[in-house]
Design a protein that fits this description.
The complex is a heterodimer of chains A (about 400) and B (about 230).
Chain A: H1 2-14, H2 16-54, E1 58-61, E2 68-71, E3 77-81, H3 94-102, E4 107-122, E5 125-134, E6 149-152, E7 160-164, H4 165-171, E8 178-183, E9 195-203, H5 208-213, E10 214-218, H6 219-225, E11 234-239, H7 245-256, E12 259-262, H8 263-266, H9 268-306, H10 308-316, H11 321-357, H12 376-390, H13 392-399, H14 403-408
Parallel strand pairs in A: 5-10, 7-9
Antiparallel strand pairs in A: 1-11, 1-12, 2-3, 4-5, 4-8, 4-11, 6-9, 7-10, 8-9
Helix pairs in contact in A: 1-11, 2-9, 2-11, 2-12, 9-11, 9-12, 9-13, 11-12, 11-13
Chain B: E1 2-13, E2 20-31, E3 35-39, H1 46-53, E4 61-66, E5 69-70, H2 76-86, E6 87-90, H3 102-107, H4 110-113, H5 119-131, H6 147-159, E7 165-169, H7 177-194, E8 197-201, H8 205-209, E9 213-218, E10 221-224
Parallel strand pairs in B: 3-8, 3-9, 6-7, 7-8
Antiparallel strand pairs in B: 1-2, 1-4, 4-5, 9-10
Helix pairs in contact in B: 5-6, 6-7
The chains are: A alpha+beta (about 400), B alpha/beta (about 230).
Chain lengths: ~400, ~230
């Protein structure tokens, strides 16, 4: 291999311009590869973070009652059970469930919540809202309400509410304004009492549905609002690794006999979207590798043609076909490695430059590129391999050169 | 011992009506260390016979022994080994590798035999370059050498593996008279000192007369001096 390496290196050095252009060509292909990887992976991470940052990763709820008929031996209906409208499903023994969840490996926090629909009234204006009842110290544990307060403060004392900014805008209310809150009840159910609440804070999460519809209320007050004597409507859980959520959900379900739903189940569209996006990215990356291969192969075919006589003379004094093949494959590999290293450096720099150029005042970039996710090692390996494999065909054609024809030409 | 024994070599190109018979039963024996000139008009088949003797071309029929090895029927790998160990080539054009120095060009056939250049091969390359008068130009690339010097490097390259037979096809065809005389004198000297047989094709009668024996070809046959 020493001879082949020496020969390959000399050939590359002697055709400096062509070698330089080839290395640049490979580098551009690898640059595209790493840029697409950093962009697609960055977008995936940002989308996932946006969703998992504001949602529970696993939600524990009571198993819903299914409609069922009980029959007498004479096949006549005895009793029909339907899902109730008037009785909201409740997680009883919520303290025990929370303890089980908190001690499970991978669980970061478990927060009991009472969630229900209500109507918020200001004067004659009525707006349907979703009330989230949570213990005051845990208001920001699931959605980052504590970090999203734009007016007032996160005060969930008795009779206080924190509402979304779009809702505040719709109702034209401000900090200190008083509103009337009325729980929505099923037809036929006993009417609930109106509760007067005072706005203590306004938040902007950035998720339209939350900012427009959600209000936060202290847990015990919410239970009273929805006439819930004991228990909670759900236990919301955050885990350390969001992609482990389905596994943890399964374990929690087995441990608590409750219905456990992971965020991935609730956002099946996101998962298919991420998969489609990854497929598109993979296609672009494959095309960039194909471009590298075509460029290297065509350049080496030209090199073989130019060095036909030299190859012929080497073959005449006994240099074997394998040596010729190895020499040209090595040239492809050397070009691939050099081009890939340059391309990775360019790709890393380009991703950082783009990130800096698209930075906004909030600290996030308008282009969701993540330079750390450029798949650089993979780009080096695949770029070099593509180049090396592309050299096989020209190398084979070089080895097939008839020494006599080449010498006489 | 014979460096070359060729018997009834026939070579045809093409088939049917397009068939051309270039060699019509050539038989030739060259003893070790013999210096033989192959002469004849253009198209007489000299180059074709040299190519067959050098195992670069397969004859249509006949037998060929090079350095007492039966060459015909050997697989390509063995033929390459045979050329590497027992044959040397000097062509009309030097065919040196442009990106390598004179010393590296001389050492090139060694790579066909082993992966690394050993000290003995390196010493022999230096000796040969000294012998052809290029001791001070071992690190020159072909572009920095004159035509005669390049051809002398090619001679040294042909000799590096101590071959039994060197095939030289018009080795002075591209050189002026003075350079031609130098190269032929060099070949004769090396042939005598290393007991290497030479088969040298030429159009130049002066050069042919300086050989041990002259073989004349015409229309694919040997008409004089086989």
């Amino acid at each position: 291999m020493v001879f082949e390496a020496k020969l390959a290196f000399r050939y590359l050095v002697s055709a400096r311009l062509q070698t330089g252009l080839l290395v640049i060509g490979v580098a551009v292909g690898v640059l595209v590869f790493t840029f697409i990887a950093a962009l697609m992976n960055g977008l995936g991470v940002r989308l996932t973070q946006n969703i998992t940052g504001t949602l529970a990763h696993v939600t524990l709820e009571p198993i819903p009652r299914e409609p069922r008929m009980f029959w007498r031996p004479a096949n006549r209906a005895l009793y029909a059970m339907q899902p109730g409208h008037d009785v909201a499903p409740v997680v009883r023994m919520d303290r025990t469930v929370v303890e089980i969840a908190r001690h499970m490996e991978g669980v970061r926090i478990a927060v009991p919540q009472v969630v229900g629909n209500a109507t918020l009234a200001r004067g004659e204006k009525l707006v349907a809202v979703t009330v989230t009842g949570v213990a005051p110290g845990q208001a920001g544990a699931i959605a980052p309400i504590d970090r999203s307060i734009v007016k007032g403060e996160l005060d969930l004392g008795i009779g206080s509410v924190v509402i979304g900014s779009r809702l505040a805008s719709n109702l034209a209310v401000n900090i200190g304004d008083r509103l009337v809150l009325r729980a929505s009840r099923a037809p036929g159910a006993a009417p609930s009492a109106d509760v007067v609440v005072t706005i203590r804070g306004v938040f902007t999460i950035g998720v339209e549905a939350v900012d427009e519809r959600v209000i936060y209320l202290e847990l015990e007050s919410t239970k009273k609002l929805f006439a819930m004597a004991d228990g909670v409507s759900s236990i919301e859980i955050k885990v350390d690794d969001v992609w482990e959520a389905p596994t943890i959900a399964l374990r929690l379900s087995r441990a608590t006999h409750l219905k456990a739903t992971s965020w991935l189940e609730r956002n099946a569209n996101l998962e298919s979207g991420l998969r489609a996006q990854a497929s598109s990215g993979a296609m672009i990356k494959a095309f960039s590798l194909l471009t590298i291969a075509i460029g290297v192969a065509s350049a080496l075919f030209l090199a073989v043609s130019r060095r036909r006589a030299e190859i012929g003379i080497m073959r005449s004094f006994g240099i074997g076909r394998r040596t010729i093949v190895r020499t040209f494959v090595l040239q492809g590999l050397l070009i691939g490695v050099a081009g890939s290293l340059v391309g990775v450096a360019l790709g890393f720099g380009f991703a950082h430059a783009l990130l800096a150029l698209s930075a906004r005042a909030t600290g996030t970039a308008s282009i969701p590129i993540d330079p750390a996710l450029g798949e650089y090692l993979r780009a080096i390996v695949l770029g070099s391999l593509a180049s090396g494999i592309a050299a096989v065909l020209p190398a084979w054609s070089a080895a097939r050169i008839d020494p006599l024809e080449a010498i006489q030409a | 011992m014979s460096a070359l024994v060729a018997t009834a070599i026939v070579k045809t190109f093409g088939t049917g009506e397009a068939e051309t018979r270039v060699l019509r039963g050539i038989s030739m024996t060259i003893a070790d260390g013999e210096f033989v000139a192959l002469v004849g008009p253009s198209g007489s088949g000299k180059s074709t016979f040299l190519s067959i003797a050098g195992t670069l071309l397969t004859p249509t029929s006949g037998t060929l022994d090079v350095a007492n090895v039966t060459a015909l029927g050997l697989p390509e790998r063995d033929l390459a080994q045979l050329r590497n160990r027992h044959l040397g080539f000097v062509f009309q054009f030097h065919h040196l590798l442009a990106d390598f120095t004179a010393l590296e060009n001389v050492l090139m056939p060694v790579y066909g035999a082993r992966a690394r250049i050993d000290a003995a091969s390196r010493a022999r390359a230096h000796m040969l370059l000294d012998r052809v008068g290029l001791a001070t130009r071992i690190s020159f690339r072909p572009a920095a050498l004159s035509g005669g010097q390049r051809q002398r490097v090619a001679v040294a390259r042909a000799m590096i593996m101590k071959p039994e037979l060197v095939l030289a096809d018009e080795p002075t065809g591209n050189l002026d008279r003075a350079s031609s005389n130098e190269v032929i004198a060099l070949l004769r000297e090396i042939s005598r000192d290393e007991r290497t047989a030479f088969l040298l094709s030429t159009h130049d009668e002066t050069i042919a007369r300086r050989c041990d024996r002259i073989v004349t070809m015409e229309d694919g046959r040997i008409i004089l001096g086989s």
